[in-house]
Amino acid sequence: MHVNNLLADHVLNLFISSCYGAIVFIEVMSLSSWKFFHSGFTTPNSKIVLILFLVVIFFGLLQRFSLTHLLLIFLLTVLVTLYFLRFREISYLITLFFAFAAGMFVRWRTLLKVDFFVRFFTVIFIIFLSFFRFLPISGDNSAITGFFFTKFVYGFSYPNPPGYLFMIICMESIFLFPRLSRLHKLIIFLLTMSIELYLDYMTGFLGTIVFLIVYFWIQRNKLRKTNFLLNCCVTCIPFFSLLSVFLATKFNPATDLWNKLNDLLSLRLPIWDYYYRGWPPTLFGNSIDVNGQTQGVVGYGAFDGAYIYFLLKYGVFSLFILFIAVLALKRVKNKAYEKTILSVMLFVILLTCFPETSGFIVAYTPIFSLMGSFLFYNEKSNLIKKYQMFKASENDE
After folding, report:
1. pLDDT tens profile 180-197
2. Distance between CA atoms of 307 and 237, rounded to whole angstroms?
C-alpha cells in the first residue's frame, strides 16, 4: 500500500509539473512572432493556458487539499470574477492570479527546474525557427504586427522579449545549479550581458548587473541580508508607484532637466503623462482602449512601466494586492534557502518593473508561481494519501 501511495503521488506530481511546463511553453511562444505567421497563438492569455491552469489547480486541490488552499482559491476566484466583470477580458492581472494559484500546488524546486528548462528550450526553439526561416530573423514590418516599434529579431517581434527572458534564464540557472564554480557563474553573467548588449536591451543589461552584484553580496550573512532585501521589495511597490505618478504629473518638456531625465527613461515620460491625464487612477482601473495601431497617439500606444500601467489599467487595488503578497513573504520563518533565492529574483524583477511592464506579466517570469509555491505549498497535505490510508484502515478492520 505504501508503494502504491508513492506511485500515485509521483504520477500526479509528474502530471501537474507537465501541465505547468506546457503553460510556460505556450506563454513564451506567445512572445514570439509565431502568431503573426501561423495560427494557434493569438494572444498571450490563450484559452489553452487558462485550461491548463485550471487543470493544475483542480488536481492540485485533489492531491493537497486543505482549508487554507480552499479559502485562497475562493478569494482568488472572487478577484478573477471581479476583474473579468470589470474588463470583460482575460487580462494580465487575471493570468497573474491563475499563476499564483497554480504555484500553490507545485513543489518549489520542481517549479523552478521545470520553468528553467522549458523556458530555455522554448527560447532556443524560437531562435532555431528563425534560422530555418519559419520565423523572421530580422526586419521591420509594423503592418503585420500592428505595433509601430516592430523589429524582428531571431523569431521575436522586437528585442525586449528575448532580452527579458534571457535575464530570467540567467537568474534561474545560477540558482538551480549552485555548485557551479565562480568562473562558470561569471561566464553565464558575461554571456547574458553580451546578449543584452547585442539586443540593445538596456533594462536586461542593467538588471543582470544588479543581479550579479546582489547575488555575490548576499552570500554572507544570508539571513540578515535576505530580510533586508525583502524589506526593499516591500518598499519598491509603493515607492516606484508614487515615483511614476510624480514623474507623469510633473513632466515638463520645456526644461532641459526633464528632457534629460526623459532620455534616460527612453522617452517614457510623455507617454506616462498622456495616459495619466487620459485615464487617472481609480480603485479598480480604467478601460484603456489605445493600442499599437492607434495613430497620432503619444508613443503609438506603447505603454511601458509596470507600476503606472497596473495603477491606471487595473487600479490602486491591484497594486495593493501585489503589496500584500510581497509583504506575506516576510512572514515565512522557515524555507531559508528558497527565501533567499526568491528575495533576490523578486528584487531584480521589481527594479526592472519601473521602466518595463514585463516583470508583471506571467509570460515573462515565473515569480508569481514561485511566490504561490513558497507561501502555500504544503508537502504534508495530501488528500490521496489520507484517503488511501483511510481505506487501508477499513480493510484492516
Report:
1. 998 999 999 999 999 999
2. 7
Amino acid at 50: L
**What digits encode the pLDDT tens for the residues 144-177?**
666 666 788 998 988 899 999 999 999 999 999 9
- 248 C-beta neighbours (distance < 10 Å), count: 23
Q: Where are the beta strands (DSSP E) in the chain?
A: 138-139, 152-153
Does the pLDDT at position 102 exceed 50? Answer: yes
Closest CA to 223 of 53, 81, 343: 343
Q: For residue 187, how many other CB atoms are within 10 A of its CB?
A: 12
Residue entry with cell 504629473: 249
**DSSP structural state of residue 141:** -
Q: Model confidence over 283-294: pLDDT tens digits?
A: 999 988 766 555
Q: Residue 393's beta-bridge partner residues? A: none
> Can you say whether the dihedral through the CA atoms of 160, 164, 166, 167 is positive or negative?
positive
Q: Which amino acid is present at 122? A: T
Q: Within 10 A of 296 (CB to CB), how many other CB atoms are there?
A: 5
Q: How many CB atoms lie within 10 A of CB 213?
A: 11
- Quickly list H helices, 146-181: 160-176
> Left if phi > 0, otherwise alpha if psi is -120 to 50, otherwise beta: which for 301?
left
Task: Answer for the pair 370, 52: CB distance below 8 angstroms, yes or no.
Answer: no
Residue 390's pLDDT is 44
63 CB contacts (<8 Å, ≥6 apart)?
A: 9, 12, 13, 16, 105, 382, 383, 384
Distance from C-alpha of 325 to C-alpha of 272, rounded to nearest angstrom: 26
For the record, the C-alpha cell of 339 comes out as 527565501
Please tell me whether the overall predicted TM-score, pTM, comes out greater than 0.85 for this model.
yes
Q: Is the Cβ–Cβ distance between 388 and 117 less than 8 Å?
A: no
Q: What's the CA gap between 176 and 194, in Å, rounded?
A: 21
Task: Give the length of the chain.
Answer: 397
In the block, cell 521545470 appears at: 114
Euclidean distance between CA atoms 33 and 136, whole angstroms: 8
**Residues 363/28, Cβ–Cβ less than 8 Å:** yes
